[in-house]
Amino acid sequence: MISINDNQKIGIAISGFGMLFLFLGMILFFDKGLLAMGNIMFLCGLALIIGLERTFRFFFQRQKLKGTVAFFGGILVVLLGFPFTGMCIESYGFFIIFSGFFPVAVNFIRRIPVIGNLLNLPGISHVAAKLEGQSSEQLQ
Predict the structure, then answer these.
(1) Smallest Cα–Cα separation from 46: which of 82, 17, 80, 84?
(2) Which among 33, 67, 116, 135 is most buried, taking Cβ atoms within 10 Å?
């Protein structure tokens, strides 16, 4: 089993609160204060979980530079007071940065008993297959 030190435990909590603040900020009609707090808390938590050096190496890889610019640019736009536009830009950057992780996540979710069955429903299976990188012929 993987051991987790105290900094990582605190980082998980801070990232969790950051995601909660982001969720609440979107539910409450893109409240810029909650979105800004959520962004800052999520990034600080991520840095505590994997470390500062690994966080910088992850975000500033050459192939992820476009996504990183969009992600941090979106955060800057949220902080400047344009929450909806900033979250759209930030979401685009998030998808570019984490696009390599989606196949692993979808494959993991397919193995969960109830949720895995939901991913095999007709409309959802094609979206999940595209996220996983499969063609529609591989589904049958």
Answers:
(1) 17
(2) 67
pTM listed for this prediction: 0.79
SS3 content of the chain, % helix, strand, coil (to 5): 80, 0, 20
| CB neighbour burial string for 37-48, b if at least 16 within 10 angstroms, e if fewer | bbbbbbbbbbbb
Could you report the per-residue pLDDT of 103-129, keeping only the tens digit for each? 888 888 888 888 888 888 888 888 888
The amino acid at 53: E
